[in-house]
Every structure is written in C-alpha cells, then in structure tokens.
Amino acid sequence: MGDEDAMRDLIAVRCEACGDTFTIHRGDDSVCPTCGCDRTHEAHEPLL
User: Whole-model pTM?
Assistant: First the structure.
C-alpha cells in the first residue's frame, strides 16, 4: 500500500525554459533537473 500512495502523489511537471518533463511529489519544490530553472507548471499530457 505504501508504494501505491507514493505513486499517487507523483505529478508530471514541465519546465518553461527548456521544455523538459519530469516527475515530482505533489507539494515539493519543482526545479528542472536539466537546466535548473524553477519556472515550471504541471503537465497535463501523459509522459512518454
């Protein structure tokens, strides 16, 4: 059950600067791992 709860908290986030999409836990700070930009928003399309 713990793993399912952890997965449910993951959201996809897209970087506005470089377009990279990555996952974070809901509520965590979202800083792009590729370019370091903190201008991100929740991505609504599925991850490939």
Answer: 0.73
